[in-house]
């Protein structure tokens, strides 16, 4: 079955450490996204990529970095520069369905900074 | 820029209808979407509506769009306990903007 796989599901990090969250899709989607979700808030866009080897900053890119070397993969690195990294991170990919940009989400990765 | 607002919480009895409301600011949104999130999981698309439509029905789900008031609603008929989740509306012209989500609690 096609879908998006995020790993790890839970991750604990000490302050000052970088961590990388994995996102892999086998849906053959061109576009991929990273969102951050905090309690009681909507999803906020961190980075997105519409094509391999190209990506753009979203609304809250500071303290994060991404790469898009393969169509299937869009890893997110949470750097030590991110002041408040504890959150639920969601990866998504998209295809156009009759003009609508329909997103398919992974199950999420919960990052806790100790 | 686009802003999307939702009420935070709704509680209904099993078998009743649920109506989740959403307002948005950017009238140029081409499509408007409803997503569902179960605890500890990602979001799944429920339905979407093109901005030139007033209504869309899909089994137990009815979406109503009032463009003049920039108001979107999702009605769930015969609400079941399995419908308990967080529901997000989202609007998009170039990129999706999500509301903060409405937590639906279905009481037996």
What do these coordinates show?
The complex is a heterodimer of chains A (114) and B (108). Chain A has strands spanning 4-7, 10-13, 19-25, 31-37, 43-51, 54-57, 64-66, 76-78, 87-97, 100-105, 109-113. Chain A has 114 residues and is mainly β. In chain A, strands 2, 4, 5, 6, 9, 10 and 11 form a seven-stranded mixed beta sheet that branches. A four-stranded antiparallel beta sheet of chain A has the order 1-3-8-7, with no helix packed on it. The mean pLDDT of chain A is 92. With 108 residues, chain B is mainly beta. In chain B, 0% of the residues lie in helices and 58% in strands. In chain B, the strands form two sheets. In chain B, strands 2, 4, 5, 9, 10 and 11 form a six-stranded mixed beta sheet that branches. The termini of chain B are far apart. The mean pLDDT of chain B is 92. Classes of the chains: A mainly beta (114), B mainly beta (108). Chains A and B meet through strand 5 and strand 10 of A and strand 4, strand 5 and strand 10 of B.
What's the structural blueprint in terms of helices and strands?
The complex is a heterodimer of chains A (about 110) and B (about 110).
Chain A: E1 4-7, E2 10-13, E3 19-25, E4 31-37, E5 43-51, E6 54-57, E7 64-66, E8 76-78, E9 87-97, E10 100-105, E11 109-113
Parallel strand pairs in A: 2-11
Antiparallel strand pairs in A: 1-3, 3-8, 4-5, 4-9, 5-6, 7-8, 9-10, 9-11
Chain B: E1 4-6, E2 9-13, E3 18-24, E4 31-37, E5 43-50, E6 55-58, E7 61-66, E8 71-76, E9 85-92, E10 96-98, E11 102-107
Parallel strand pairs in B: 2-11
Antiparallel strand pairs in B: 1-3, 3-8, 4-5, 4-9, 6-7, 7-8, 9-10, 9-11
């Amino acid at each position: 079955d096609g879908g998006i796989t995020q790993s790890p599901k839970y991750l604990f990090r000490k302050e000052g450490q970088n961590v990388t969250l994995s996102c892999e899709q086998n849906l053959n989607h061109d576009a991929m996204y990273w969102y951050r979700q905090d309690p009681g808030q909507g999803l906020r866009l961190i980075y997105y990529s519409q094509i391999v080897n190209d990506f753009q900053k979203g609304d809250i890119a500071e303290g994060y970095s991404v790469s898009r070397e393969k169509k299937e993969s869009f890893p997110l690195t949470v750097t030590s520069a991110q002041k408040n990294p504890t959150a639920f991170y969601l990866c998504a990919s998209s295809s156009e369905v009759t003009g609508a940009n329909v997103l398919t989400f992974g199950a999420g990765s919960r990052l806790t900074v100790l | 820029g686009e802003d999307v607002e939702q009420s935070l919480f709704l509680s209904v009895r099993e078998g009743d209808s649920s109506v989740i409301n959403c307002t948005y600011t950017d009238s140029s949104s081409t499509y408007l979407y409803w997503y569902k999130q179960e605890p500890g999981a990602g979001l799944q698309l429920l339905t979407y509506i093109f901005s030139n439509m007033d209504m869309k029905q899909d089994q137990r789900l009815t979406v109503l769009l009032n463009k003049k008031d920039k108001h979107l609603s999702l009605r769930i008929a015969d609400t079941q306990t399995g419908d308990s989740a967080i529901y997000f509306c989202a609007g998009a012209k170039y990129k999706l903007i999500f509301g903060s989500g409405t937590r639906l609690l279905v009481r037996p």
